[in-house]
Amino acid sequence: MATAIASPLIAGPYTGPARSVTEIVPTALWDKQIGLLARDYPYDTIMAARVLGQGYAYLLTAMRHRGESLGLAPSKLVDIGVHTIILDTVAYAELCEKYNGGHFLHHVPKVATKNDGSVLRTARLVAGDGWEVDLPLWANAADCGPCHPGNDSH
């Protein structure tokens, strides 16, 4: 059984079995989004599933902490999964309805990136919320930062 705590870098209060996004995302949607990632990026289905899973874990964590102004940020690879999710706007709106109290979690990117520690802080929070963190996908943290810090957006 997998655990959410994958590294001392992201250690947090959660120590139970990791939650799986495949229990939340309908199989047909999951398969479609894996196909989109494999079509648009040089990923096999295993890598596509890793990226997509972390994208969902990030978004669901951001939704759970709506209004807390935490300045959450995904890594570049996790952000690819996030984009795949939010570009399927009908499914994304349904996700926001179900897990974000009907509030749309907007995407407000900035051009400049910074090394402010927000990506690894976000990975810690994702793990603390019980999601498995695939740490190698969060490793390029130096090139990312909050897209819209202090706001309820990605």
From TrEMBL:
<protein>
    <submittedName>
        <fullName>Uncharacterized protein</fullName>
    </submittedName>
</protein>
